[in-house]
Amino acid sequence: MLNVPLLVEVRDMTDRDAVIAMDIENRQRRDVSPYERGLNFARCLRAGYFESQDDLARSLRVSQSLVSRLLTLNRLPSVVVSAFANPIEIREGWGPELAAILQDVRRRDVTIARARSLASLSPRPGAVEIYQQLVSASVPGRKVRALPHDEVVTDDDGNPLFRIRDREKTIAMLLPRDSTSQAILNEVRECVREVLQRASRAAYRTEVAGRVTVLASRSRSIRSAPRQ
């Protein structure tokens, strides 16, 4: 249909084997979100490819806690998911806390009302702020501090590489875990160390030069002062 040559590997596979192969491929793709993986896991269980969550975790060689967290995202009600501008921005660790809030009868209605309110905003806040608004909706007197937007550093083609987050006393560099190997992390660490060390040395030389200038100026003043 694409009318382009393709390089393919043809294999006889069961549906279960195909699901496992698909999940392995999805883990290597940066554009597959935790929410999407949660939907896929739920579909596989409903289709009967795996007997249980434990069977799914063993077959895919992932932890049972990961499967549980991703399935929790899948079970979030649509009204909460719709609060986010894009559900693929929902992070893996947010599901358990949101689910716990929705199970609390004292907090559920207020949180759902906040979700509907957020869904009506245009434009909507970022995913992190949406999450914090939902979590704090039922906590009396708790106000959510507006979060600064991260600076996204991209390559020449506009693809995101990493983020820079400006905090009150520090600046954080956020690297994507799935595409940052230990070798890359070591190289980034060494590059940052060299840059900061070079800056520190330059600042030290500037400070020393300033002190020398002050001492030289004082020395000239002493020599030129009239003797008493």
Can you walk through the features of this model?
The chain is mainly alpha-helical and 228 residues long. Among the domains are: 10-75, Arc Repressor Mutant, subunit A, CATH 1.10.10; 78-146, no CATH class. It has helices spanning 15-27, 34-47, 53-60, 64-74, 78-81, 94-103, 105-119, 127-136, 182-224; strands at residues 151-154, 160-166, 171-174. The chain has a three-stranded antiparallel β-sheet, with no helix packed on it. Strand 1 (151-154) and strand 2 form a beta hairpin. The model has no long low-confidence stretch (mean pLDDT 81).
Q: What's the short story on this structure?
A:
The chain is 56% helix and 7% strand. It has 228 residues and is mainly α.
Strands, helices and their partners?
Elements: H1 15-27, H2 34-47, H3 53-60, H4 64-74, H5 78-81, H6 94-103, H7 105-119, H8 127-136, E1 151-154, E2 160-166, E3 171-174, H9 182-224
Rg is: 28 Å
Q: Structural class per helix/strand content?
A: mainly alpha
Low-confidence runs of at least 5 consecutive residues: none
Strand content: 5-15%
Helix content: 55-70%
